Amino acid sequence: MSVADPLDVEAALQARNDPALDSNDNSPDEGLIEDFTVIDKKAVEQLTEGLISHYLPDLQRSKLSLKELTQNQEVLLETLQQEISKFKECNSVLDINVLRRALKLQQKRQKEELEREQQREKELEREKQLTAKPAKRT
């Protein structure tokens, strides 16, 4: 969608309402259309340059801000990854401590069970020795 320059529209209206120009005479209209194209191109260039000069500084500042923000996020991400690694290491140390404790408890139980078994064997041996034996006949 193109927007016509107000001067172009006004010139076209004047040319259409001019009684000196006959509707069958094409020569004045042809030149007028070509002039509109040249004027529109210049206007477009000027508007484009004005628009760019107006918004470019803000866009450049925004670009720098986004770049700085991205760098800060990368630093934050790296720091978080290091902290995660530390937590994983701490958890593995805790897991090792839990395993060590479980192993010590298991060894203690096995030792107690072994001592009970040895005590039973001693008691059985003692009972065996205390059991009345028939005397040897001579």
From TrEMBL:
Species of the source: Podarcis lilfordi
Entry protein name: Biogenesis of lysosome-related organelles complex 1 subunit 6
InterPro entries: BLOC-1_pallidin, Snapin/Pallidin/Snn1
Localisation: Cytoplasm
Annotated Basic and acidic residues bias: 109-130
PANTHER family per record: BIOGENESIS OF LYSOSOME-RELATED ORGANELLES COMPLEX 1 SUBUNIT 6 (PTHR31328)
Domain of life, per lineage: Eukaryota
GO cellular component, one term: BLOC-1 complex
Record bears the keyword Chaperone: no
Region span, Disordered: 1-31, 109-138
Function: Component of the BLOC-1 complex, a complex that is required for normal biogenesis of lysosome-related organelles (LRO), such as platelet dense granules and melanosomes. In concert with the AP-3 complex, the BLOC-1 complex is required to target membrane protein cargos into vesicles assembled at cell bodies for delivery into neurites and nerve terminals. The BLOC-1 complex, in association with SNARE proteins, is also proposed to be involved in neurite extension. May play a role in intracellular vesicle trafficking, particularly in the vesicle-docking and fusion process.
Record-stated family: Belongs to the BLOC1S6 family.
Keywords linked to the UniProt accession: Cytoplasm
Any Pfam family the entry gives: Snapin_Pallidin
